[in-house]
Design brief:
The protein is an alpha+beta fold. The protein contains seven helices and three strands, in the order ααβββααααα.
């Protein structure tokens, strides 16, 4: 299943595209803390889904980071990217791209684009917290 399909499936399952609503619905533990050189990361530990978010993020940035980490949870649950960064030479940029696509599709669903046809995809993306450099990941 690709990132777009995975995001659509999760939205339907939780009846929402709000990452905070989804996190509550799935009993994900959210931890806000001081992170160095990271905005967030996902961890599966002792049958618990845990997402760490930088306490320095504003609300819109936190929405995108949480959506991104939900992408990792849905698509890369068995990968330890923290270990991969620290202990291997394996580039996981492909996994980061998947998580970014997932976040864009989650926060900017097709229904939203249809609901506001007078707005550009960039305007809508900005309003939901998607950084401009990721807008082109939206599959139109």
């Amino acid at each position: 299943m690709n990132a777009r399909e995975c995001a659509i499936k999760l939205m339907r399952r939780c009846n929402s595209n709000n990452p905070f609503t989804i996190a509550r619905a799935l009993d994900i533990v959210l931890i806000y803390c001081r992170l160095v050189d990271l905005n967030g990361f996902y961890q599966y530990h002792k049958r618990n889904h845990i997402i760490y978010l930088s306490e320095e993020l504003d609300e819109l940035a936190a929405r995108f980071v949480l959506a991104h980490e939900l992408g990792h949870m849905q698509m890369h649950r068995n990968l330890n990217t923290v270990f991969m960064d620290a202990k291997t030479f394996h580039s996981h940029s492909r996994f980061e791209r998947h998580a970014n696509i997932f976040a864009v599709e989650l926060l900017l669903p097709d229904d939203l684009l249809r609901e506001y046809p007078e707005c550009t995809v960039y305007q809508l993306a900005r309003s939901v917290g998607i950084p401009q450099e990721f807008v082109e990941l939206k599959q139109l």
